[in-house]
Amino acid sequence: MRGGIMKKTLISKMDPENIDIELLKKYAGIIRDGGTVIFPTETVYGLGANALDEQAAEKIYRAKGRPSDNPLIVHICDIAQLDMLTDSVGEKARLVMERFWPGPVTLIFSKKKTVPYATTGGLDTVAVRMPAHPIALGLIRESGVPIAAPSANISGRPSPTRGEHVAEQMDGRVDGIILGGDCKVGVESTVIDLRGDVPVILRPGGLSSEELEAVVGRVETDPAIKSADTGAAPLAPGMKYTHYSPDAQVYVVKGSGEEAARIINRLVEDNAKKGIVCGVICTSQNSKYYDAPVKLELGYDSADAARNIFSILIEMDKRGVHVVYSESLEEKGLGAAVMNRLVKSAGYRFIEIQED
Which end of the chain has fewer CB atoms surrounding its CB within 10 Å, N or C? Predict the structure, then answer.
């Protein structure tokens, strides 16, 4: 196990469609007592603690090995809990909440003094969302407090969307783990700052910019999303530091189709002569073009890709892959979020394909 944390972790399976309330109350008690609990959401698994308890929030950073200036997203179960976190909810924020909560979108607000800086990464803002998952909502409700919860992985690693991946990384690091099956969306929430005249997406995620624009009008994207410069203080998770990276070295191929496959296949063959095991990440429709020891398919569309991308990155390490070559997706809808995760997992390493 990575790191030196070791504790007894209570691990339970739970059916989202038939929740064991008494068992859920046991985990809620851990939250109330200042402990840490991993639980499923519709996006990825979250590592939760009482968002209003400074010492509890600090336990999240220790469990993940997460830098303390990387803010946590606070999860709530109803609008009444939002009043515990902020008193400045604008009109556009209300429109987004009415249309998309519960769901995979996080909003940035000015924080109340009751929200500790340990939760906000030292910022005067707080990131809030209402998850669309019965176990997550039930845990928050039974705990009686908002729950701060980043993704339930070692900092910098791929986010877990399947129960077995959670236990492999985090058993012994947290007080409790609720295994509730696979996450339906598969990438983290979209983070948007609605405090200015024009809303700004700080992290692409499970809700597309097109869907947001249909409700609030023009939306801009923070240029830091596509930049390798990590010097600025992050307003949202995923804007700074290495993220989503497997042990394997990942390259994103800028190009598609048979010409891209021809070049990738040549790289795979050349590496094989040196004893380097290569893997390919591709769409299901392009899979026929690739010849690699490990070939994992994203699926047929961006929704499939979002559900599969993190488990594929984790699987590449399990199969002993040294170098991964991934196709690019069109950056529309969920494709923008998938490409953001791929590019960050690659550390902005690209291979340009010149198509005729």
Answer: C
Sign of CA dihedral 232, 187, 190, 152: negative
In sequence order, what E strands does 113-248 have? Answer: 125-129, 147-148, 176-179, 190-193, 200-203, 220-221
C-alpha to C-alpha distances, 190 to 103, 112, 201, 211, nearest whole angstrom: 10, 23, 7, 11
Single pTM value for the model: 0.93
Read off the pLDDT of residues 316-341 as tens digits, 9 standing for 90 and up: 999 999 999 999 999 999 999 999 99
CA pair distance 188, 74, nearest whole angstrom: 13
Residue 15 is given by DSSP the state B
Whether residue 188 contacts residue 167, with contact meaning beta carbons closer than 8 Å, is answered with no
H/E element, 169: helix 163-170
Q: Which residues contact 203 (CB under 8 A, 6 or more apart)?
A: 106, 188, 189, 190, 191, 225, 236, 237, 238, 239, 340
Q: What share of the chain is helix, strand, coil (3-state, %, to 5)?
A: 35, 20, 45
- Rounded to a whole number of angstroms, the distance between the first and last alpha carbons of the chain is 48
Encoded tokens for 237: 């998770």
SS3 label, residue 158? coil
Domain assignments of the chain as residue spans, ordered by start:
10-226, 249-352
Domain 249-352, CATH among 3.40.50.620, 3.40.30.10, 3.40.50.11030, 3.40.50.970? 3.40.50.11030
Residues of the chain with pLDDT under 70: 1-5, 228-242, 256, 354-356
Task: Give the integer Cα–Cα distance in Å for 217 and 345.
Answer: 31
